[in-house]
Amino acid sequence: MIKVKRLNGKEFVINSDLIEFVEETPDTVITLTTGRKVVVQEPIDDIIDKVIAFKSKNIQYIKR
């Protein structure tokens, strides 16, 4: 799960395993495998960094 903010500033979490793709149009739109689209404040690079950090944390936990 990654934390993101809607355009109104309200924070919520997205299951990063459900992200199909992310695009800037110019707002950042996250499309989920369910077909749902979510517009967020964060730029694409921040979304990528958050997903990498989350998955890295999970891998480190599993290796223990």
From TrEMBL:
Q: Which UniProt keywords apply?
A: Cell projection, Cilium, Flagellum
Q: Which domain of life is it from?
A: Bacteria
Matching InterPro entries: SwrD-like (IPR009384)
Task: State the protein's name.
Answer: Flagellar FlbD family protein
Q: What is the lineage of its organism?
A: Bacteria, Bacillati, Bacillota, Tissierellia, Tissierellales
